[in-house]
Design a protein that fits this description.
- The chain is mostly helical.
- Helices cover about 65% and strands about 5% of the residues.
- The strands form two sheets. Strands 1-4 form a two-stranded parallel sheet. A two-stranded antiparallel sheet has the order 2-3.
- Strand 2 and strand 3 form a beta hairpin.
């Protein structure tokens, strides 16, 4: 079915309509899902709790949350999922990632709360690393869920609208909106009114982090092109979400 999409970036790959369980090949789908969930969890565990610093020309020392180095990679993989496999399959991955994050938060709470053995002296350090502020955890989950679904929706719609052309426009455009929603939910919900956080500081950090995440997406555009091209050729399909049910409240792929 190639009529409306003959001006796609790669016309050698057959077009498949999204929204159906049989929509396209999925030989590497599970591997991409695993990569998405792994990066999501690791960036939350290893990066979220550390504030790093980098020295910039003219500006000088610039502190930043270490998680921003790798968390945006999950957005790149989310773009790849939607572009290659369609919104319905990306939706399933988002729910899997959300469930994994919820379980990780629950497991961390249980393990930290367990009374330590008398001869184990690392409880304080363990709490520092793995202890979680409930408000921040809830804000992170809500922001991830909304941001990822908005990102996938915008990319899928833009793909149909653009006829499959200009992948860079879809990935950057969807990230602008998706990361915008993510940041607008997370920072006010997590920090507005908290000790040491003024309204001005929340807004400053919100826009700074949003700009940095979008900047990462722009820098990683060649990687996105390479992954999308390789997966489309390997799967032998190019999914367009024309008849897709875009409700997030289903896991049907």
């Amino acid at each position: 079915m190639t009529g409306p999409c003959e001006h796609r970036d790669d016309r050698s790959i057959p077009v498949v309509e999204g929204g159906a369980p049989s929509a396209g090949g999925a030989r590497f789908y599970d591997l991409v899902m695993a990569a998405f969930v792994a990066i999501l969890l690791l960036s939350n565990v290893l990066g979220a709790g550390k504030v790093a610093v980098v020295t910039l020309p003219v500006v000088g020392a610039w502190p930043f949350g270490a998680g921003i180095l790798f968390f945006p990679v999950s957005y790149v993989i989310g773009d790849v999922l939607t572009e290659v496999y369609g919104y319905a399959r990306a939706r399933r991955v988002i729910w899997v990632g959300f469930a994994a994050t919820v379980f990780m938060a629950f497991m961390a709470w249980v393990v930290v709360a367990l009374p330590p053995a008398p001869d184990w002296t690392n409880q304080a350090a363990y709490e520092t690393v793995f202890g979680q502020v409930p408000r921040i955890v809830v804000a992170s989950m809500c922001a991830f869920w909304a941001g990822e679904f908005v990102n996938a929706y915008v990319l899928a719609r833009m793909k149909v609208w653009s006829g499959g052309r200009h992948l860079w426009m879809r990935t950057i455009g969807s990230t602008l909106v998706g990361q915008g929603v993510d940041s607008l939910i997370f920072y006010p919900l997590a920090f507005l009114g908290a000790a040491g956080w003024t309204g001005e500081l929340v807004v400053t950090v919100l826009f700074t982090q949003w700009a940095l995440k979008v900047g990462w997406e722009v820098l990683l555009t060649p990687v996105t092109y390479a992954l999308v091209g390789a997966l489309k050729r390997a799967e032998g399909v190019d999914v367009f979400d024309r008849e897709t049910d875009f409700s997030p409240f289903t896991t049907r792929a």
